[in-house]
């Protein structure tokens, strides 16, 4: 059974989420604040977290950072905040997706299923377990990225995007292919997801993110990794 931790201080929304999740055979724990969320996450080890940013005791970004200190579990942010800066702050802290309130329950459940799928272990062909460039090295088997002698942390979504690109060196990977493989068929038109996450990857990998050397955009088509 997939276990979900719902971190939300609105009792009505918590009740709606619990009912819908349990009806679909998810195990559910809930926390009304950040401190309880961090404790429950450590005790219960959920498979995925649904997290509101506006918590009574701390900002949700602090909760994300606390979870990312020891876990790669998918974190889906649920928030009424809509500015790009707030979304980027949550993604920078380690969130995997951002769902703006009010949201469709069907859309949320679809994104939840996609997040869980992304955590499933996928075997990497032996010839591509390690990728080296002049600026960084990637070990896909143990999911380790080293740049300038320091480990670089990537979120599960960033890892999946990077794995797809680096295992097809020099080849165009279309926007549609990336969206379907990472977010599922229902999200194949959400090219804004790709722009946000590719910008995140470039900030972490490229010397000059505004003029990328490794993660190349093919305008209107997709992306390419140049080793």
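-> sequence recovered:
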């Amino acid at each position: 059974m997939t276990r979900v931790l719902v971190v939300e201080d609105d009792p009505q929304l918590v009740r709606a989420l619990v009912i819908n999740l349990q009806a679909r055979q998810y195990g559910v724990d809930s926390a009304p604040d950040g401190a309880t969320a961090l404790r429950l996450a450590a005790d219960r080890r959920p498979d995925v977290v649904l997290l509101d940013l506006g918590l009574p005791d701390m900002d949700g970004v602090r909760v994300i950072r606390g979870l990312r200190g020891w876990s790669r579990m998918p974190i889906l942010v649920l928030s009424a905040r809509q500015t790009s800066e707030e979304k980027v702050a949550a993604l920078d802290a380690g969130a995997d997706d951002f769902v703006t309130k009010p949201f469709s329950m069907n859309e949320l459940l679809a994104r939840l299923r996609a997040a869980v799928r992304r955590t499933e272990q996928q075997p990497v062909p032996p010839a591509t377990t390690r990728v080296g460039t002049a600026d960084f090295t990637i070990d896909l088997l143990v999911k380790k990225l080293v740049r300038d002698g320091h480990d670089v942390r990537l979120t599960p979504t960033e890892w999946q995007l990077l794995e797809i690109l680096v295992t097809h060196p020099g080849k165009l990977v279309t926007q549609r292919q990336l969206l379907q493989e990472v977010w599922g068929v229902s999200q194949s038109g959400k090219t804004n997801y790709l722009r946000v996450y590719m910008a995140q990857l470039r900030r972490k990998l490229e010397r000059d993110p505004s003029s990328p050397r490794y993660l190349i955009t093919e305008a209107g088509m997709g992306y390419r990794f140049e080793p």
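The helical segments are 11-23, 34-44, 60-68, 84-93, 105-118, 156-166, 175-183, 191-205.
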